[in-house]
Amino acid sequence: MLLYLPDITESERRLAAEEVFFGESFAPGVTLRGYHLTVAYYRAGDAISLKIAGDMALEASCDRCGAPLELAVELEEPFILFPASAEEADYVYGEEAIDLDPFIHEAIVLNIPPKILCSDECRGLCPTCGKDLNGPACGCEKNG
User: Fold this and answer.
1) Which of 39, 54, 80, 84 is deepest in the core (most CB within 10 A)?
2) Upper half-sphere CA count for residue 73 (Cβ side, 13 Å)
3) Which residues contact 116 (CB under 8 A, 6 or more apart)?
4) CA–CA separation, 85 vs 79, rounded Å?
5) Cα–Cα distance, 142 to 144 (Å, whole number)
6) Cβ proximity of 83 and 46 under 8 Å
7) What is the pLDDT of residues 53-64, one digit of tens each?
8) H/E/C letters for each residue in the chain?
9) Residue 111 has pLDDT above 90, yes or no
10) Distance of CA 3 to CAs 42, 81, 96, 118, 143, Å?
11) How confident is the model at residue 143 (pLDDT cuts 50, 70, 90)?
């Protein structure tokens, strides 16, 4: 998805992000099932401000017990881009257009929770027998 530099003015504009990453795995066991994101952009001198905001749906498994789950995540990530000639800038732009896909990808990755749980009270799996400790007791000495 390209954003052409002549279209970027000092007035903020918005556009809907296309779902180019649908079904992609972004982390072990985490698959993107969809998103509704908006890209807000404007120019401030030589700098260009991008803000990607919205929500995404993830399919994952609990990090403690392994139960499958779907997770809704809201996100908002700002990016400031500078001309390619700028030294030590984290994000730069060229002469004609900005490819938004890497920024959308980064916003998604940065907003995947580091620990995904089916519930805050999840007890995980028994280290001895592997049974899910959220159900009936397994009978192992430490967990019984």
Assistant:
1) 39
2) 27
3) 30, 58, 60, 61, 62, 63, 69, 71
4) 17
5) 6
6) yes
7) 999 999 999 999
8) CEEEHHHCCCCCEEEECCCCCCCCEEECCEEEEEEEEEEEEEEECCEEEEEEEEEEEEEEECCCCCCEEEEEEEEEEEEEEEECCCCCCCCEECCCEEECHHHHHHHHHHCCCCCCCCCCCCCCECCCCCCECCCCCCCCCCCC
9) yes
10) 11, 13, 9, 38, 57
11) low
pTM: 0.84
pLDDT at residue 36 tops 70: yes
Chain centre to alpha carbon of residue 55: 9
**Whose structure tokens read 């749980």?**
117
**pLDDT class for 23, splitting at 50, 70, 90?**
confident
Mean pLDDT value of segment 133-144 = 78
The residue written with tokens 């990808």 in the block is 105
**How far is 67 from 65, CA to CA, in rounded Å?**
6
Question: Is 82 in contact with 117 (CB distance < 8 Å)?
Answer: no
Residue spans per domain, the chain: 2-110
